[in-house]
Fold this protein.
Amino acid sequence: MTESSKELKSELFQDPTVPGPTTAVLSALATRLNYSLSDDELKQCHSLITDALKGFNRLDHLVEPTLPVKYPRTPGYRPTAEENPYHAWYWKSTIKGADSGKLSGKTIAIKDNVMVAGVPMMNGCRALEGTIPDVDATVVTRLLDAGGTILGKATCENLCLSGCSFTTGYGPVLNFYDKARSAGGSSSGNAVLVMTREVDMAIGGDQGGSIRVPSSWTGCVGLKPTWGLVPYTGAMSIEPTLDHLGPMTRTVHDCALMLEVIAGYDDGLDHRQHPKIKVPEYSKEIEVDNLNGMKIGILQEGFGHDVSEVAVDRIVREAAQKLTSVGAEVKDVSIPIHKHSSAIWVGIGCEGSYHCMLRGSLQGLGYKGYYATNCMKTIGAALRHDTKHLSPTYKKIMLTGAYLNQTLHGQYYGRCQNLRRLLRQAYDDVLNDYDVLIMPTVPFVSQKLPKENEMTFKDRSNLSENMFQNTMAADVTGHPALSINAGWVGKLPIGMMIVGKHWDETTVLKVARAHEKICK
């Protein structure tokens, strides 16, 4: 053995990066797991674990593969109140992309659960403040490669677990139609920045409706694509089988244009994706003269919820019927299991997010792909120790997930994943005969923002979750679903949701574009 190899071997076997547990810590862990170990067995186990962890020291000498950071930027700054009247910005940092491309001249906001290298990320929760990613999410790189200019990070709700816009770390995001009302969530800042024209487009995230709810309550166009069409690489996860990223824009054309830039396979870095994804030029394919031969179903179960407002139901039905003027056939259809979609989501979302968010540090575990390891340690520690900044909804979901896991050992999660197949098949069966389905995005108009000192724990949780009656289904089934403004109740916009076949965003966007033309 040469002197240099001796030195390297000595270096590799220094104290491990991950220190072994003390016997007291190991004993406590064994008790928690209901393992019976004698004192001698505990000592032997301690020795085995300590030796095994020494191997971790070798790994620190290997360089992890990472994601590219191709365009220069500065860390930016947190905007003042004068610059940020709706609290829609979390952080401002201008990053100019390529000199030319499909998005040349377009300005973009990035939801603050998506990584932008060197720019602070809080994910709506002050417990995570100080987290600075060292990579650009794949969608960020694609937007910049296409010539877009990023202007900063849009405010999102606390760990993206609210459909109302009052849970953010620095005060509520205000609806610019009425500052006393919610902008929707969790992609709250995105919608406001788009509709106030501070940016042309934004990247939103959607696990239960978080693109479509704020789109409905602000009047923008928001698309949750087919699950796996847009790579989630470099975004904070809630539950991998529910995670989606998608475009939020003022026009259907820009929505289609943005989608064709961000969609497509990510070379195996995102386990949600299939390598044979095809991405058409959506922005060119949606411009048609009519919808002749197209069959549109109005989903009966999407109307008449306990919380539905009569005006919202009426306006969405009227908007759907207007599509007959351009050749579409419009009929009522029924999917009875749609009424159970929220319950199926809860079974997947609560226990799944407990494993992904708390145990997996907002990245999850057990998949092949890219892990943002530089963020995992910081985030994991924050979620366990800086708990005063965690929202009631997050705490409730984590406790529910932990309880289900402890008492039913994953059975209910598995059952709801199985029921997902029934829900998906029910949608597919109807979509075999119809091109798209239509229903209200949210069955009521934007609700008033609550006053902090008037809310109980229960109030805060309920107000964060009372608007997902229709949106959760498409997150469970993975079908593409787009929200577009259908009309107004007074001065408040309401959304019409258009749901299509898997991988058929083109048809969804065609219908949305036809509606947009009719309304002009």
Notes: Residues 500 and 507 are 7 Å apart (CA to CA). The chain has two domains: 3-59, 89-519. The chain has 17 helices and 13 strands. The first helix runs from residue 3 to 12.
